[in-house]
Amino acid sequence: MKKLLLLLFLMLVSLGSYGEKVLYCSDNLATGFFKENGHWSSGNFTLKKWTIKFNQDYSLLSGLKGGRDWNCFNSYGNTDYNSIACVSAWENGGAFSYHKKNKRYLYISSITDGYIDTYVEPQGTDILRAGSCV
Fold first, then answer.
1. Which of 107, 95, 102 shows the shortest CA–CA distance to 133?
2. How many CB atoms are located within 10 Å of the residue 109 CB?
3. What CA–CA distance (Å, rounded) separates 65 from 96?
4. Considering the entire predicted model, what is its pTM?
5. Tens digit of each residue's pLDDT (9 = 90 or more) over 37-71
6. What is the mean pLDDT of residues 116-124?
7. CA 62 to CA 16: how far, in whole Å?
8. Is residue 46 a contact partner of residue 26, using CB atoms and an 8 Å limit?
9. d(Cα 3, Cα 1) in Å, to the nearest integer?
10. Is the per-residue pLDDT at 6 higher than 70?
């Protein structure tokens, strides 16, 4: 009986993830803007690796900053381009672009209390990352 329950549980878990696209991504480039001693500077940032997940139709992305699903759209509203544009669910200016064929991405980790907001202290850091996913 225990084996049957375990088998049913494993089947339900696998059905729940059916169609999801799990990708392992790593930066090739990372740069951005940060405030130090009252002055803004640009600089290189540590390259990172992470796991992301698209749902079956590439309309939702999870695994990025904030822990919420990001909303995604076909570039120019056309699937022929093979590129997806995603926006942060936090509505803070973050964006993630991904090309389904060449597996490259561009990730803009920006925040509205970063460079553009001069009234908040401390101000956040805006980072631009480029890399590929497998």
1. 102
2. 23
3. 11
4. 0.81
5. 889 999 999 999 999 999 999 999 999 987 899 99
6. 84
7. 15
8. no
9. 5
10. no
Helices (H), the chain: 2-16
Question: What is the distance between the alpha carbons of residues 49 and 32, in angstroms, rounded to a whole number?
Answer: 17
More confident residue, 58 or 6: 58
Q: Are 67 and 102 in contact (CB under 8 A)?
A: no
Coil vs helix vs strand at 23: strand
Strand runs (DSSP E) across 14-134, as ranges? 21-36, 39-44, 49-54, 60-62, 70-74, 83-87, 95-99, 104-109, 126-133
pLDDT band at 1 (very low <50, low <70, confident <90, very high): low
Rg (alpha carbons) of the chain, rounded to whole number: 18
- Using alpha carbons, select from 24, 25, 33 the residue that is nearest to residue 128: 33
Residue 119 DSSP code: S
pLDDT score at 102: 97
Query: Which is nearest to 30 in space by CA: 43, 16, 18, 21?
Result: 43
